[in-house]
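Lay summary. Proteins are chains of building blocks that fold into shapes, and those shapes determine what they do. In this project we predict the shape from the chain. Here is one chain we studied, written as its sequence of building blocks.
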Amino acid sequence: MSANFRIEKDSMGEVKVPANALYMAQTQRAVENFPISGITIGPLVIKALGIIKKCAAQANLELKLIKPEVAQFIVAAAQEVIEGKWNDQFPIDIFQTGSGTSSNMNANEVVATRANQLVSEKKADVKIHPNDHVNFGQSSNDVYPTALRIAARIAIETTLFPGMKALESELNAIANKYAHIAKTGKTHLMDAMPVTFKQVFGAHAHMVKMGRERVKSTLVRASELPQGGTAVGTGINTHVDFGKLFAKYVTKETGYSFIEAVDHFEAQATLDAPAEVSGQLKTFACSLMKIANDFRWMNSGPNSGVAEIEIAPLQPGSSIMPGKVNPVIEESVAMVCGQVIGNDAAVTIGAQSGNFELNVMVPLVAQNLIQSIVLLGNACANFAKMSVSKVKINEKNVKDKLYKNPILVTALNPIIGYDLAAKIAKTSYAENRSLLEVAKEMTTLSEAELLKALDPVKMTKGGFTE
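And here is the predicted shape, written in a compact code that computers can read:
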């Protein structure tokens, strides 16, 4: 042993471990075996592993399977993991053994080492073992899939849903603020019948609401915990009541409802529930990208584009063109959506990799799913705060373009017929004259009748305008 390293032993022999590390031999072997990406498991998964070790000790204590003094120190050490005090002690690459065994043992070793330090501080007469005590009644095969579900639920409740609610609220706020203003609608990126800004932004808000409801609908299945199935789903080496009791403690610890898996074989052999969550995240990413791109289009210009809204200028937009300002928040949102859609592809492949009694791509699915949840939540919150709440309507430009829109003639179809209406529209466009002026010349309708029929705001309410 040197000042920098100490020697740890496991069933395969001796290993050099950094002297001050809380982890032991199996973690170090994994660090050396998987120098792949440099991406380690995230803080939410580490927190979930801490929750598992704490709640497992509490359940085993209640079942009288471990001694009170053992449970006491495991709970105390695991609590520190939950609080993020030892995140730097989880150095293993996410591209590791597909069951997450390496990271489960990492958690067992960290909790055991820290528990023994606390034992020493209290001068207690007990020795905590990573397998015999911290991992008692557990297997990596049920621990990591459980950690995935707990971490995902925490991320959804604390980051995704608040972000989505903030965005929905701001979209509804500007919808109501500008409800009285109509603008030229667009289909195929071409001028169409008018719509109000309340209809435009209200639709955006409803898209966000529906996205939240879609994700929420998955939670009943994603909140079934595999813990208690141990190695293959049979529950070998754990108490028959452990899974149910464990879920009760996790519910108490997190404040979110969890239950024991209805079928442990399904819960460990598949990642169908996490894949379902990811699929709904992808669906919302499609919605969110549409919203961000609508904002970019409506803001485009300001002189040669649509220029219906003004997005707050946040930073210079070019290193060579002075005065240029770009829709940077919307662009960041669109990139997040692209990442989430890509993550879903990785989750899909991972979810396909269940062989017999175990899925062997759990760390990959956990990494991509949790990243998607956090990215979408943060992107929504930032979009709401930095852009949507600051949007202004370019009312003069909107009205000028609206009253020159030849498509408004559609409202005259029931009165003068399609053919004459088309002729009026083409003349108005070709001669760059207002629709009202041309219609007065080409029909027998009075100006009052035409104004009534061609009222853009009235057109946004549907039905017939005459």
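What the prediction tells us: The chain has a mean pLDDT of 96.
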